[in-house]
Amino acid sequence: MLKTNLEINESIFALTTGGLPSAVAIVKLSGSTAFEITKKIFFPYFSDLSKTRGMWTGKLLTPEGALIDQIMALTFVSPHSHTGEDSVEFHCHGSVAVVEKLERTLISLGARQATRGEFSYRAYLNAKTSLEDLETLGDVFKAKDQIDLNAIYSRKSEPLQEVVGRLKENLMVLQAILDTSVDFSEEYSNVVHQSFQPLSKAIHECSLTIQAYKRFEHGLSVPKVVIAGRPNAGKSSLFNTLLGKYRAIVHEEAGTTRDAIEEEIYLEGKRFKLVDIAGFRQALSAAEKEGIELGEKFLKESSLWILVVDGTVGISKEEELILERFSQKPHLILWNKMDLAEFQRPPNFIGPTVVLSARTGEGVEELWRSLESLSLKVVGQETTLLPTVSQVKKLEKVFELLISISEGLKRSDPAEMIAEKNRAAMREITDLIGYVDQEEILGKVFSEFCIGK
Amino acid sequence: MFHVKHFDVVVIGGGHAGCEAALASARMGTSTLLITMDTSKIGEMSCNPSIGGVGKGQLVKEIDALGGEMGINADYTGIQFKRLNTRKGGAVQSSRCQSDKKQYALRMQSIVRGTENLTVYEGEAKDLSVTEGKVQSLRFVSKDSEIQIHTNNLIITAGTFMKGLMHCGFEQSSGGRFGEKPSVGLSDNLKELGFKLMRLKTGTPARLHRASIDFSKMEIAPGDDPIYKFSFWNSETPLPQVNCYLTYTSENMHQVIRENIHRSPLYSGHIQGVGPRYCPSIEDKIVKFPEKTRHHLFFEPEALDSEWIYPNGISTSLPAEVQELFIRAIPGCEKVEIVRFGYAVEYDCVDPTQLTPIFQSREIKGLFLAGQVNGTSGYEEAAAQGILAGINASLQAQNKEPLILSRAESYIGVMADDLTSKGVTEPYRMFTSRAEYRLSLREDNADLRLSEYGHAIGLLSEEKYAHYLERKQKLEDTKTFFASHYLKPTPEIDSALAKVGSSPLAIAQSVSTILKRPEVGLREIIPFATKPLPHSLDDKTIETLEIEAKYEGYISIQREEIARLNRLKEHLLPTDIDYKKIHGLSLEVKEKLTKLRPKTLADAAQISGVTPASLTALLSGLSKLKSGGISAQGTV
Known about the structure:
The complex is a heterodimer of chains A (about 450) and B (about 625).
Chain A (H helix, E strand, L loop, with lengths): L11 E4 L6 E9 L3 H8 E3 L9 E8 L5 E10 L10 E8 L1 H13 L3 E2 L4 H8 L5 H12 L3 H8 L4 H26 L12 H22 L6 E6 L5 H12 L14 E7 L2 E7 L1 H5 L7 H4 L2 H6 L2 E7 L6 H9 L5 E6 L16 E3 L8 H18 L7 H23 L3 H14 L1 H4 L4 H11 L5
Parallel strand pairs in A: 1-7, 8-10, 8-11, 11-12, 12-13
Antiparallel strand pairs in A: 1-2, 2-6, 3-4, 4-5, 5-6, 9-10
Helix pairs in contact in A: 6-7, 6-15, 6-17, 7-14, 14-15
Chain B lengths: L1 E5 L2 E4 L3 H12 L4 E5 L13 E3 L3 H11 L3 H8 E7 L9 E6 L1 H13 L4 E5 L1 E8 L2 E8 L4 E5 L3 E3 L8 E4 L2 E4 L10 H8 L4 E8 L2 E3 L9 E3 L22 E5 L2 H9 L22 H7 L7 E6 L6 E5 L7 H8 L10 E3 L2 E8 L16 E3 L9 H19 L13 H12 L23 H11 L5 H23 L1 E2 L3 H9 L9 E2 H5 L6 H4 L13 H12 L1 H18 L17 H10 L4 H5 L6 H16 L9
Parallel strand pairs in B: 1-10, 2-3, 2-11, 3-7, 11-22
Antiparallel strand pairs in B: 4-6, 5-6, 8-9, 9-10, 12-13, 12-21, 14-21, 15-19, 15-20, 16-17, 17-18, 18-19, 23-24
Helix pairs in contact in B: 1-9, 2-9, 2-11, 3-4, 6-8, 11-12
């Protein structure tokens, strides 16, 4: 199952920092010959290199004595290192030429380029890390904001455990019903129809968990802040004001669809997509209804929305309608254009309102405060349910099995065949729900059904 | 008079476990002694008059396949046969029969008496002597003799007799069965030998007088015709077949029980033993399932020439006058005469985790325990343990390797493993759901699974073995033939298929492939075979071929699962392994492993809470341990 230690003694290296050139480049060397190799090429300024844990500055030379770079090196002695092996980190200047020369030198001294994930693999083999920790690490790279990070780090806590607990319960009830129909057919000839309820619940729990991961993976968990309002209410200037304050550092991703103008902002540590539906509106023909113009479609998808009202005109019927329909979602009304003479105060029944002038900036401070406290509400609502990749793969298999059970039930397949699939489902997620002992199932049977003639 | 005698194997107790144990040992050629307090009670059915049932029928078939007596005895004395689960697939169908209780015991007694190498003594066994961790001798005492018996292999099948205490209301009397003395010395004897004992409880209903029941108010529950018998061998079912009757409890009856519940020793704390959840007393059913307005009851004749009716479903420990009241509230029982009142019995049993999977004590060589004394319930469970203990006691007497049956090959193995590795908290009964490979462990293939063993150990006679080989050959030839015999689509075949609701053949397909269709039976397609079959087909062959075809996908998954488990079995876990030092195991798993000390990775996998991830961690820890790994770090 696991590889033996045969190839583990070989030393491996890799550039562990990003693209070159850069300020610093770190090349990591790990393996039983790490010190032996290093002694041939690295010469500290103040003392000889010894096999101890340490931080050194010195010259990096080729075996022939040519200077490669002046560097800092960190040394680690087995087992006290990331991989559990002897290892050395070369902190060089981030030059393509330096790194290439160093790598060629290492190869000439018997080390080889590490394959993808090989450091982690060795760390795992040397019991420095567990599979779960590795998976967690994998997801940390995918995380987009603090909320994602929290979800990853709090994995073992409630949300997943709760869903999985319910999943287990429903799978066990399902098994109990099926087993009852086999083992106690005289008393309960017709219990199989009771399977549908726990089955559909189990399917729900399963897909809930799978979906949560998909959303995380595709970045769909990012909530949207939608700016709605009639033309000339001041949406675009608000959009730019918000961007000016909160614009996120955006790393372009493939496959992001854009129906309107979207930019990313950071509010209280949470990433949001800011959507200006003005861009959407302009793409529509004049014949489109105003309701659509106001962006119903976007409002439905929004986690938080802002209605910009022209304070010189007041609120329209359509705007009232929108307020009514989406009042359940966190929202804010911006009563704009307070700097103009025709401006009227907002009526006090319409909900959370900030009066401001997007043009002069008056009232904007209050906008920040209101928006930041609103964003916390959104964060509170977001579920932090997040399984790991391997858990999701297993859950997908369970999902498949459950669908097949559902089809089997509709076809009136024999209970023992359906039960077999359910057992397979429980086996599949033993890691998540634990080994289900038949005694537990029997416990359900005897508590749910009156058995015994 | 004082004598000294020697027997290879001694069996104490003549119930279902004792009979199978003694017969197996004697038939395997070892000199065997059966000691019973009352020879007329050998093979007695102390509770319900039936053999088999779902899961239990499979056990009977396995006993039969090994060369035991229960299946044959049930066939010869059955008065109603019924296949259960016939609406489900073949894999979980089970046999049951109503037995003529008297005939069942009488025939068993005559078999026991007529078996070579088997001696029966009537009296009591005392003073088991153990030295150097090995059984040496015991003392037999009867009215007119006392015999010192030397043996190194003793099987105790004490049933419910160890410190048996019967309850009928608050009246208590000592005994393991109505009118019979308890066995008091034995459990103290076992306690002295270091066995941990437990107290369990079971119950039996009142018996009713046939002529006083108005059966016209009940539904007739007939048996099957034709009969599907238990035994694979040449047994017969000579007795006339009779009906049972189905009736229901009434609201009135529930009311009587509710009003008198305080008089039940179960509900007043007079009974400490734990009763089975699957066979609750009627008071239990009514208290625990108040939403159920009626429970069904089967009225079963105890014997052809008996006036006694066994009312299945009203086992109780309520006092006699309450029993009379509530039984008379059953439709058809208004004027019923009760011939014996129901009672609960509490008894000592040993914690079976002190036994190995052949039911031998882990500490005392040559001491076997089988049957209800191991915390089980049911004739079939008892008999199955009896035959395995008898076989192994005999093998040990012959200095041969033990026969251990695995979970993957038999229900007996499932039971042996459950009992000896997990123990019991209530009387243990077999269910198909206990067998994770139940689709492979079927009634129809019990002989294919076990008869080879039965013959190898010298239990299954040459005659039966020849019969088995013939069946096996026939099955294999036919299977091969059907796999390569292709049927072309013709209007005739298609119309035959359409008759059973199956779609027409699109292309030529092998008989085996067509048979995989759930709705198609072999009988529908055999007429279209264009070549002569290698053998004429009989029902048994057809059954096995059909089941294997229908379940093929599932059975192959189970086979993979078995293979996976067998691979895990190859990884032995050293007994001195320090689980605390294994990286990657949760605290809970470490504690469980430390406590239970599984012998192999397969055993570890069966422990609740041990996940595949912990197995991987365990495996990696093991390989590090072997290679001397990075122990400097303090972990292995």
